[in-house]
Design a protein that fits this description.
The structure holds two protein chains of two kinds.
Chain A lengths: L4 E12 L2 E12 L3 E5 L6 H8 L7 E6 L2 E2 L5 H6 L2 E4 L11 H8 L8 H11 L1 H5 L10 H14 L4 E5 L7 H16 L3 E6 L2 H7 L2 E6 L2 E7 H5 L2 H8 L2
Parallel strand pairs in A: 3-8, 3-9, 6-7, 7-8
Antiparallel strand pairs in A: 1-2, 1-4, 4-5, 9-10
Helix pairs in contact in A: 3-6, 4-6
Chain B lengths: L3 H32 L6 H19 L7 H24 L3 H23 L14 E4 L2 E4 H23 L1 H11 L1 H6 L4 H23 L9 H16 L4 H27 L1 H13 L10
Antiparallel strand pairs in B: 1-2
The chains are: A alpha/beta, B mainly alpha.
């Protein structure tokens, strides 16, 4: 499809044990764009994320990132080349302070600019500065989500995967979250947004993919998909 | 009959012994806190480190205190390699497997030691560490005083390392959130092996500080491990501070128990603490519920 894609996924097959969940997924993310990956529960979104981040080895297919094949590479190497995931459920380090959580964001990548990035992240999330010395486990859900994203930004991502960033947030915070994602993107960051929140995701994404039973059922410009009756059908499983 | 000076002397003596227990227990609690396993090979590896100190002294004439950096580095390397190529590899991610492997390792090491080093107890004579130091009402062997301050210093250094360095933060991160750790690029298996290595390095340090005033035999690790287990349970599994406090409490209990009940019965206090903690506060003094 596109030659300027920074992430190029071809015929990706992955799963757990003997169970194949992704059955041949093709997906591209180009520099500077927000791509939404939609799909209902169990469609394979998390499996795709974990395969991209090297949490487990895909069964087959190819993942090219910045021109290099990374399918099956260890998670640490994938972080090193700048493909960074902010996982569903935040996965912050509850026993470490907010500041330590952020510092560990630059454990593998971006260490040289740690101080500068820390300042930048705290500028985006002033709340994190107020809570710097507090254990991350004592933060509210919304604050933990900010921390998880902040930790991801500390890694100086070239592509940021956001897995369900609006999950469990109050409606007001969801609005803020989408505004933030748009702002990060405006600074040039490419984002793969994995969401169940269809309407808002399509509103900020340039393109979108709909995952269904481990395959891409629909794809195209977000504006077109938003009006597509097939999306509704696919999403609700009707 | 209850002479205050004697109690005070017993307490000082207990503190000195406790410092070594702290060192052994800190290694055990670190491994538990990060890997969530009880390292059954702890005693055997301590014994091995003590033999290393013994042979370095008798064959190479290296002073046990000067040997400390060498033995600590060697113990770290041994622990790292053991975890990376034996324990981690054959555990297949199952905690109960790790338990069995460390237990098996302990049996093998004990019997190899028996075969190669015989069952005789061995001691070394370090002239500059012999002699008695007077502290208030207590008379302590010089070696124990050195051990006390060195153990405290090493614990403080380890605490600073775990608290401040990136590797220390990664160790604490991996202890609670492995998936999150992988996603920031922490090589979790490497951090596991480093943690195990540090735990064993603590044993190397303890061995260097022990040998000038203690003996080594193939079974001499076990005495310390029983005490270390009690210390860790008392302080709270995985708690650094707990191991520190627990080690001293156990040391004093043992010393005062010996004073009032005699050498043989003195150890009963340790078992009593163990039972009481399990009954009244199973998470230990500093252990949080997981």
């Amino acid at each position: 499809m596109a030659d300027d894609a920074i992430l190029q996924v071809r015929d990706l097959r992955a799963g757990y044990g003997p169970v194949e969940i992704l059955r041949g997924v093709d997906l591209d993310v180009r520099a500077g764009e927000i791509v939404a990956l939609l799909g209902s529960n169990g469609a394979g979104k998390s499996t795709l994320n974990n395969a991209l981040s090297g949490i487990f080895r895909p069964f087959g297919g190819s993942i090219r990132f910045m021109g290099a094949e990374i399918a099956g590479a260890p998670a640490a190497r994938i972080v090193e080349v700048g493909l960074v995931q902010v996982p569903e459920g935040r996965r912050v380090f509850p026993n470490l302070s907010v500041r330590e959580n952020l510092e560990l964001g630059s454990y593998r990548r971006g260490r040289a600019n740690r101080a500068r990035n820390l300042e930048r992240v705290v500028g985006i999330f002033p709340r994190l500065a107020e809570r710097a010395g507090q254990a991350a486990g004592t933060l509210s859900g919304g604050e933990q989500q900010m921390l998880a994203i902040g930790r991801g930004l500390m890694t100086e991502p070239r592509l940021l995967i956001l897995d369900e960033p609006s999950l469990g947030l109050s409606p007001l915070l969801v609005e803020e979250m989408f505004a933030l994602i748009r702002r990060l993107n405006a600074d040039g960051l490419a984002i793969l947004l994995v969401e169940q929140n269809v309407v808002q995701s399509l509103a900020i994404a340039r393109r979108a993919y709909v995952l269904e039973h481990g395959r891409i059922a629909l794809s195209g410009p977000a504006a077109e998909l938003a009006g597509d009756p097939a999306l509704r059908r696919s999403y609700l499983g009707l | 009959m209850l002479n205050f000076d004697i109690v005070l002397a017993g307490t000082v003596n207990g503190l000195a012994a406790g410092a070594i227990y702290v060192l052994v227990a800190v290694g055990l609690t670190l491994i538990y806190g990060v890997l969530h396993i009880i390292n059954f090979a702890h005693g055997s590896l301590l014994m091995l480190a003590m033999y290393a100190v013994f042979f370095l002294f008798t064959r190479a004439r290296i002073d046990p205190y000067l040997a400390l950096p060498l033995v600590v580095a060697g113990s770290f390397a041994l622990g790292y390699v053991l975890y990376r190529f034996l324990i981690g590899r054959f555990a297949h991610g199952k905690d109960e497997n790790i338990l069995l492997i460390t237990l098996g390792l302990s049996i093998i090491l004990d019997n190899l030691a028996l075969f190669f080093f015989t069952g005789d107890t061995q001691t070394i004579d370090v002239p500059h560490a012999s002699g008695i130091v007077e502290i208030g009402p207590a008379f302590l062997p010089k070696a124990k005083v050195i051990a006390f301050f060195a153990a405290l210093g090493l614990c403080a250094a380890l605490g600073a390392y775990i608290g401040r360095s990136d590797m220390g933060k990664a160790i604490r991160a991996v202890a609670r959130e492995r998936q999150g750790a992988r996603l920031v690029g922490i090589d979790v298996e490497h951090v596991f092996a480093v943690s195990y290595g540090i735990g064993i390095a603590c044993l190397g340090a303890a061995a260097c500080l022990l040998m000038p005033s203690f003996y080594v035999s193939p079974s001499s690790g076990h005495a310390f491990v029983l005490i270390a287990f009690t210390t860790v349970v008392l302080g709270g599994m995985g708690s650094f501070l707990g191991a520190l406090l627990g080690g001293f409490v156990i040391g004093i209990t043992e010393s005062l128990g010996g004073l009032f009940l005699g050498e043989q019965l003195g150890q009963i206090g340790i078992s009593l603490i163990f039972i009481l903690i399990l009954l009244l506060r199973p998470t230990g003094l500093f252990g949080g519920g997981r």
